[in-house]
Amino acid sequence: MTEQQPEIIGTDGQAAPPPLAGTSLGDLVEQPAKVMRIGGMVRQLLEEVKAAPLDEASRARLRDIHLQSIKELEDGLAPELVDELERLSLPFDGETPSEGELRIAQAQLVGWLEGLFHGIQAALYAQQVQAQSQFQNMRLALPGPNDVKGDDSTTSGENSGSGGMYL
Q1: Which of 53, 35, 40 is nearest to 103 (CA)?
Q2: Cβ–Cβ < 8 Å for 9, 122
Q3: Would the pTM count as exceeding 0.85?
């Protein structure tokens, strides 16, 4: 671990291996706006499911929406995240799910999406910190105003302390 790379902490609180070189946020979330829209919709659906009792037809419709949401999310994510989402989201069996099953499935999806969004925010922050560090290193490498480099101001009539003829 170098000073340039931030340490990544996994969900278990232990240090996680850094992402593969060349992996960027754009590689993991190919369509961030789509993922954000679907995440907002899923969160709103969860609130609706909590607020009102659902009959069999509405539960069947919500199941279909849930499955379609997962399919749409998969289109906007990298294969690693698609695999993770598929492992975590268990499919409904053929019959209409109960309200409890729907609440659990929706809450699980919302939780996964919030974790994804927090991960994106953490990665953006780490990139920002790294860019600031690189910028600071570049600034320190630049010559300062008082560096002596073959100053020929004595021959040109300029005073080295004055900053120029017009100052």
Answers
A1: 53
A2: no
A3: no
Find, among 72, 74, 64, 53, the residue nearest to 94 by Cα. 64
Written as six digits, the tokens of 167 are 């100052």
Rounded Cα–Cα distance for residues 141 and 146 (Å): 14
Single out the residue of 29, 24, 92, 19 nearest to residue 61, CA to CA.
92
Per-residue pLDDT of the chain (167 residues; tens, 9 = 90+): 444 555 666 555 666 555 544 455 556 777 777 888 888 888 888 888 788 888 999 889 988 988 898 888 888 888 888 898 888 887 777 788 888 888 888 888 888 888 888 888 888 888 889 889 888 888 888 777 765 555 555 555 555 555 566 76
- The Cα 71–Cα 73 span in angstroms is 5
Type of residue numbered 109: L
Q: Report, in angstroms and rounded to the nearest whole number, the Rg of the chain calculated over CA atoms.
A: 27
